[in-house]
Amino acid sequence: MDGIDHLADERNKAQFDVDAMKIVWAGSRHAFEVSDRISKLVAADPGFRKDNRPMLGRNELFKNTLRKAAYAWKRIIELHLSEEEAAKLRFYVDEPAYTDLHWGMFVPAIKGQGTEEQQQKWLPLAYKMQIIGCYGQTELGHGSNVQGLETTATFDPQTDEFVIHSPTLTSSKWWPGGLGKVSTHGVIYARLITDGRDHGVHGFIVQLRSLEDHSPLPGITVGDIGMKFGNGAYNTMDNGVLRFDHVRIPRDQMLMRVSQVTREGKYMQSDVPRQLVYGTMVYVRQTIVADASCALSRAVCIATRYSAVRRQFGSQDGGPESQVIDYKTQQNRLFPLLASAYAFRFVGEWLKWLYTDVTQRLQTNDFSTLPEAHACTAGLKSVTTTATADGIEECRKLCGGHGYLCTSGLPELFAVYVPACTYEGDNIVLLLQVARFLMKTVSQLGSGKKPVGTTSYMGQIEHLMQCRSNVQRAEDWLKPSAILEAFESRAARMSVACAQNLTKFTNPEEGFAELSADLVEAAVAHCQLIIVSKFIEKLLQDIPGKGVREQLEALCNIYALFLLHKHQGDFLSTGCITAKQASLANDQLRSLYSQVRPNAIALVDAFNYTDHFLGSILGCYDGNVYPKLYEAAWKDPLNDSVVPEGYHEYIRPLLKQNLRTARL
Ligand SMILES: CCCCC/C=C\C/C=C\C/C=C\C/C=C\C/C=C\CCCCC(=O)SCCNC(=O)CCNC(=O)[C@H](O)C(C)(C)COP(=O)(O)OP(=O)(O)OC[C@H]1O[C@@H](n2cnc3c(N)ncnc32)[C@H](O)[C@@H]1OP(=O)(O)O
Ligand SMILES: Cc1cc2nc3c(=O)[nH]c(=O)nc-3n(C[C@H](O)[C@H](O)[C@H](O)COP(=O)(O)OP(=O)(O)OC[C@H]3O[C@@H](n4cnc5c(N)ncnc54)[C@H](O)[C@@H]3O)c2cc1C
User: Fold this and answer.
1) CA of 501 to the centre of ligand 2 (A)
2) Which part of the chain is the Acyl-CoA oxidase C-terminal domain (predicted)?
């Protein structure tokens, strides 16, 4: 606006190489270059404007999303973008759309659960967007309990078809994104019935709409489920309702990698575990962990820049007031979120590696790491999305009153993000899965079966059950070994305590239900240990760039010590640390905040977000917040006229009536 960088002084304070940190954040130089190029391309294109979203009515909003998705596809083709570049372009367009489900779930479901033949038939159509697909699992009556789904797929040997049917109101498909108004096809989950026998839930490719005029095919009732939380936000998505009235599909449209139905109607299972039917969810949970760091870093970038711009109190001798970022309370709320954004980035990278490793093993029929992959994706999805949703809301509060304006970008970001705590598995339901995995691991200790992967720390259970932290000075908390021992012993002791309590119940399932609140806490402790240990492992790698490692070490310590402070009840009650050591951790945390303070702006610049992507006046790169806020207010449609519409109908008569009353 005035061409001045109002945050220049802050940027000059940085003690590390920001460009090198950008590469660490992106994951590699290549990833940085792609991301940088595509984000600028999107930002410069008026076709991807998004600042008017909160003002639009649903129909207008939705049509605008359809236009953008079509335009994005046109640009992808025109520019010959690779798969990686196209995914980045959709990410930077930053508008939830049916394409998320098409590329994010429909295609992966066919890839993961379809046979070679099925993949060859359906994937080329999906890749060219000649068909558009959704993921139709959840029903009105059941979401978490997948085994409770009611839609049926009954094999008819006479015609070699499945008959898909919604027998009850609660069996109506409810929630699938892209289903409401767009998808031509869906991977639909239904109970497979052959010869009167129910074989449980399986996936089927079902055509829903005509490829000629988009009308629903015979027997199909489909529509949108209605407005969701927040203005704009996730209302760009057509989450749908769907009912089947004896819809027939050919037998070869059952996804048959895990199990098959023969021409004669015989049900056969491959040598692969039935849980592979849930494989798409494992894949998406892994991507959601990576996305948590994006959403949180975005909110943190806004709150950090604004905290450096905003001044309140503290003026001395007529000088400027204090920047709110210098208040210790502001730092204590903001810097752990900054550290969490980095921590989630690195654990997301690791989880991607783990997922790739499991997928490669599955190709060779090695299913040994599947339970670990399920527990890690479920647990980390839960812990990172909960922290991110809470963190975005905290960032809104960190921005004071202006954070509540849509132009801060934070209300919409929160409204879009918060369902991540529910979709792809309710966070509590997923933590209970982790708890089951932990209880199984504890029950096998001493059986000779060595715990592996993320539970390998349980291999030293005797030590972890009785060790005492040897921290004596605040600086001792900077040793990775001190942090790891505290987190490992806390997680181990919480799991063992649950396992011991479970033995008091004659019926294990009853015990599990009764102790579920404690089990969830044990699962959280285990997942936080994974995040801390993956951050520490990241620091063992070669990290080029002046001062970059030092900044990451400070952030890693802030992340760990803040968790230790927040959950000190766990650490103290299990006897892993003393009250004195907890207090020393807090002292160390304060000095880490002072270390990060001069680098805070540079640490959020390292995310390399364009102003377009941030979509926030408070977070704009140049920090010129006030003129921009002032100008934006006048652009609000309510200010199109000085005297509002409705004055003559509702304000004037009121004022006149009050005048008459006053005269009386
Ligand atoms: C301002 C604008 C901003 C714009 C954007 C800004 C920011 C956005 C940023 C990010 C966006 C975020 C992400 C984007 C990416 C994609 C998201 C897009 C859209 C959202 C899509 C959402 C789609 C859905 O929700 S699909 C539906 C998902 N449904 C669920 O998850 C259901 C959950 N339930 C279950 O998974 C299961 O029912 C269960 C709870 C696991 C229980 O299953 P059950 O069979 O009953 O099993 P049981 O407990 O008895 O266990 C048996 C046995 O199986 C093991 N098991 C279970 N599951 C699995 C598995 N998946 N894999 C492997 N093994 C599994 C279990 O451990 C047991 O093992 P064992 O017998 O004990 O050994
Ligand atoms: C924005 C959005 C997009 C979605 N997109 C899709 C999609 O594309 N495709 C699709 O198929 N689905 C989709 N879903 C559905 C989503 O996957 C489910 O809503 C989710 O899995 C949660 O299930 P539920 O709604 O049945 O919750 P419920 O299970 O009914 O949860 C209600 C409460 O009960 C608790 N609870 C449930 N079971 C237990 C238990 N065993 N122990 C303790 N507590 C329990 C939960 O913690 C929660 O507090 C979407 C949902 C949303 C919000």
Assistant:
1) 29
2) 480-656
Strand ranges in 157-264 using DSSP code E only, listed in sequence order: 161-165, 173-174, 185-194, 197-207, 220-224, 240-244, 247-250, 259-261
- Cβ burial of 228 (10 Å; 0-12, 13-18, 19+) is middle
- CATH architecture of residue range(s) 276-619: Up-down Bundle (1.20)
Ranges of each domain in the chain: 132-270, 276-619
33-60 pLDDT per residue, tens: 999 999 999 999 999 999 889 889 999 9
- Rg over CA atoms, the chain: 27
Q: Ligand nearest 413 Cα, by number?
A: 1
Nearest CA to 472 among 570, 580, 371? 580
As a whole number, the mean pLDDT across the chain is 96
276-619: same fold as 132-270? no
For tokens 């009167």, name the residue: 196
Has 184 been labeled as part of a binding site?
A: no
ipTM comes to: 0.96
Q: Mind listing the pLDDT tens digit for each residue in 98-124?
A: 999 999 999 999 999 999 999 999 999
Mean pLDDT within 248-274: 94
Kindly indicate the confidence band of residue 141, based on its pLDDT and cuts at 50, 70 and 90: very high
Tell how far the Cα of 216 is from the centroid of ligand 1, in angstroms: 29
Annotation-wise, does 177 bind a ligand? yes
Catalytic residue among 424, 485, 521, 553: 424
Give the domain 132-270 fold.
Butyryl-CoA Dehydrogenase, subunit A; domain 2 (2.40.110)
Residue 428 alpha carbon, nearest atom of ligand 2? 47
d(C-alpha 315, C-alpha 286), whole Å: 48
pLDDT digits over 16-37, tens only? 999 999 999 999 999 999 999 9
Amino acid symbol at 489? S
Closest ligand to 283 CA? 1
User: Is 553 one of the catalytic residues?
Assistant: no
